[in-house]
Fold this sequence. Notes:
Elements: H1 3-9, H2 22-33, E1 45-50, H3 53-65, E2 79-86, H4 96-113, E3 117-121, H5 123-129, H6 132-136, E4 144-153
Antiparallel strand pairs: 1-2, 2-4, 3-4
Helix pairs in contact: 2-4, 3-5
Amino acid sequence: MESNELFRRRKSVRSYTGKLSQTALRSVLDAAQLSPVGMGRFESVHLTVIQNALLDEIDRNAGAAFGDAGKHPLYGAPCLILVSAKLGDPANGNVPYSNAAILAESMALAAIDANLGSCLIWGAVRALNANPALVAKLNLPDGFVPCCGVIVGETSDKMEVREVRNRIAVDYII
Length: 174
Ligand SMILES: Cc1cc2nc3c(=O)[nH]c(=O)nc-3n(C[C@H](O)[C@H](O)[C@H](O)COP(=O)(O)O)c2cc1C
């Protein structure tokens, strides 16, 4: 898909059929592998692809943390790709959270081309980090902290081409 069309079709999807092919998932993960990482320190970021019962646990943990156990902050998506980064290493400077965000957005954009819905997830990751026992189930390498995630999966939502809305303030200093 041409990039201009890709950006116009991008939107957060919060309704999923529950299906996800391995091929589509692979193309989403490939986009992360092609993403830039500050100072080229690719070893400072880590992906965890979650498709089993842990997905439901993370969803329920977030629902409870948000004060509504019936709420599903992962929206029934069949897959959460969690992006973790090594925090606290002075050599990584101020880039770890930015690296994580860039990887997540690359995957979200790749999802459109793979005919998948996606949504960036920060809220449920904050709730996850407040539950060390749940974080332990991720078996992350030492020093890595979940920063954000992206849910992906097939959806019945239509990805219509949207008009550009000038919602963000822009100053020109010329
Ligand atoms: C840093 C960041 C964190 C976000 N976290 C969440 C989240 O936890 N849950 C959610 O449903 N959407 C989340 N979103 C999606 C935004 O709510 C969404 O992008 C915004 O409302 C605009 O809608 P659109 O993406 O459909 O254009 C997040 C987006 C960004 C950029």
